[in-house]
Amino acid sequence: MARMRRKPDLPQKICATCGRPFAWRKKWARVWQDVRYCSDRCRASKPQPRPPDQ
């Protein structure tokens, strides 16, 4: 059986909305490359594209 990894040893990313780091989760194992947000709350409040400055 494989040894458990400690939290600091897990891969991390930066949330696209809040800018905080978040760690890999088992439920994201198959889609880790596509994960951009740390939570449902951040995903719901995605940054809106800014209108061009004039």
Can you offer a commentary on this structure?
The chain is mostly loops. The protein is 9% helix and 11% strand. The chain is built from 1 helix and 2 strands, in the order ββα. A two-stranded antiparallel ribbon has the order 1-2. A hairpin with a 6-residue loop joins β1 and β2. It starts with 11 loop residues before the first strand and ends in a 10-residue tail after the last helix. The mean pLDDT is 85.
Overall geometry comes to elongated
The largest sheet is:
2 strands, antiparallel
Q: State mean pLDDT (0 to 100 scale).
A: 85
How many H/I helical runs? 1
Distance between the termini: 61 Å
Helicity level, as a percent range?
A: under 10%
**Strand and helix order:** EEH
Strand order of the largest sheet: 1-2
> What low-confidence regions span 5 or more consecutive residues with pLDDT below 50?
none
How large, in whole angstroms, is the Cα Rg?
A: 15 Å
Number of strands: 2
Relative strand content:
5-15%
Structural class: little secondary structure
Feature tags:
54 residues, little secondary structure, two-stranded antiparallel ribbon, 1 helix, elongated
Outline of this structure?
This protein is mostly loops and 54 residues long. The chain has 1 helix and 2 strands, in the order E-E-H. The protein is 9% helix and 11% strand.
